[in-house]
Amino acid sequence: MLSQAQRTPILELSAQGVSKRRDRARVCIDRAVGEEFRLTVRKVARSNSTEVPEIVPGRKAEPYRPRILELFNTCKENLVES
Length: 82
Description:
Largest sheet: none
Mean pLDDT: 77
């Protein structure tokens, strides 16, 4: 995840029309800012914002939460099989 300080030069160079791809004629944004991943540079340029997006992790067990809690209470917090 790029910080706000890293995102600013990407947006500035993108606004100046500097290429996001490797091109012999122009300096590439990814090389100019020291970022090695073009996809990251492309995402920042598309977002057109210096704000760092918040990452919300997905929860795979959420649909099973009621059943998990029911079993937890049934076992009286004893999770070791006998």
